[in-house]
Amino acid sequence: MLSPIRIGIAGLGTVGVGVIKILRDYSNSIEIKTGRTIKIVVVSAKSREKNRDQPIDSYHWESDPVNLALRDDIDIYVELIGGEDGVAKESIEAAISNGVHVVTANKALLAMHGNKLAEASEEREVLLKFEAAVAGGIPVIKVLNEALSINKVTRVMGVMNGSCNYILTRMEESELSYESIFKEADDLGFLEADPTLDVGGIDSAHKLAILSSLAFGTNVNFSGVNVQGIEAISIDDIKHASDMGFRIKLLGVCEMTEAGLEQRVKPCLVPAGSPLGLLEGGTNMVVIETEDSGSIILQGPGAGRNPTAHAVVSDIIDIINGSKIKTFGVPYKLLKNALVSDFSVDAPYYIRLLLEDKPGALAKVTASLGKESISINRMRQYDHESSKAPVLIVTHSTSSESVEKVLKELPKTGVITQEPVALRIEELNY
Ligand SMILES: NC(=O)c1ccc[n+]([C@@H]2O[C@H](COP(=O)([O-])OP(=O)(O)OC[C@H]3O[C@@H](n4cnc5c(N)ncnc54)[C@H](OP(=O)(O)O)[C@@H]3O)[C@@H](O)[C@H]2O)c1
């Protein structure tokens, strides 16, 4: 009989306690799948007194996760504290230097320090696994790293923050403002302690930077992600987009273009009837477009105790079964430094204007668009009682540079009574 695999877990919050429960509840299945039993040896959290939902008294307690990671009686260190720096980073570095495998769900840390951690773990010949870090319960890391291992990925896109999708879909359904639904999501505990991580698009950008590295064999480049959150999305935009057959989603998109690697997180319009358009509430979706296998659509829970903890446990099982897969799919030395593209590939745009209702106003707008070679596909003016007319324009495919220029030019026409809004319409192949 082989000796048990010894685990140390730091962080006993939503995910940490879920991992303890799953390791207990599924101990038989784990033994069948690995031929080994698992023994949780030691745990750590901030407060020893807190009630944890799971009995933990039989485990050793370390108040400092770094000391936990440096112990000589663990084989795998599971980091479930969170945060891009501080004790999460220090303890993972300590575990690696101690020759201990690491499992983490920490996307912020991987987005900021993934390259260095990949180097350290591969040099020390230990594994660093992070299935739960992107889209929680959706096994997207394994799909990219294993199932599609040598497939040429052309684009990855997705809705990777359930809180933003909840806010956007609830706004549409309730016809309430962003501010009201933001408060509702906060009251329900759907937002991070710092909500700008969610609504400001940062959390999605962390995940996108990781996916981009796996998809294109490049170093993780979080600072190369062009990020815009959903804070400025109005109920009017949601209604008008819906009127024109679209839904607004906070999309993360990465693709390798002739101009370099493009990574963007932005509110975009997608066709209402497309899989992304139909995505409701807190659910996540990741679409992987490939040259040889078409588009692969993964949908599921992006967070939550059980789905996320199962993803963590699946990494533990892979380690026990002797996974040899490199951190970001290829040896860290072969990860490329991609040139970052400054502009987005061309796409149609939705432009919303509040126009002075007077003769010649529309002509000035169309002249501005024409100057930037932006041609109009569809235009709609809404009924109005005041002297200001809401106007919507859907353009033909154009460059993001032209749209940026026209947004600066339009207020100079003197016929616009509000900052114009432009949202990209993402073209989907499925
Ligand atoms: N929640 C999800 O659905 C989900 C989904 C995907 C990924 N993740 C990732 O999983 C990780 C954990 O998330 P979570 O939601 O479980 O967080 P959480 O509920 O806030 O739990 C964090 C845990 O870390 C402990 N902790 C904080 N500072 C510590 C320190 N200095 N030393 C030791 N322990 C410390 C806390 O201790 P106390 O309990 O004593 O305060 C708590 O148990 C994060 O990286 C997160 O991004 C979470």
What characteristics describe this protein?
430 residues; alpha/beta; Rossmann fold; Dihydrodipicolinate Reductase, domain 2; Alpha-Beta Plaits; 3 domains; ten-stranded mixed beta sheet; six-stranded parallel beta sheet; 14 helices; 16 strands; 35% helix; binds NADP nicotinamide-adenine-dinucleotide phosphate
Explain what you see:
The protein is an alpha/beta fold and 430 residues long. It folds into 3 domains: 5-133, NAD(P)-binding Rossmann-like Domain (Rossmann fold), CATH 3.40.50; 147-300, 2-Layer Sandwich (Dihydrodipicolinate Reductase, domain 2); 349-425, Alpha-Beta Plaits. It contains 14 helices and 16 strands. The protein has helices at residues 14-25, 27-34, 65-69, 86-97, 107-123, 140-147, 162-174, 178-187, 196-199, 202-216, 235-243, 305-320, 361-371, 400-409; strands at 5-10, 38-44, 60-61, 76-79, 101-104, 128-129, 153-159, 225-227, 246-257, 260-271, 283-290, 295-301, 349-356, 376-381, 388-395, 421-425. The strands form 2 sheets. Strands 7, 8, 9, 10, 11, 12, 13, 14, 15 and 16 form a 10-stranded mixed beta sheet that branches. Strand 14 and strand 15 (388-395) form a beta hairpin. The protein is elongated and about 85 Å long. The termini are far apart. The relative contact order is 0.13. The mean pLDDT is 96. Bound molecules: NADP nicotinamide-adenine-dinucleotide phosphate (NAP). Residues 10-16, 44-47, 50, 65, 80-82, 87, 105-107, 132, 136, 303-304, 308 line the site of NADP nicotinamide-adenine-dinucleotide phosphate.
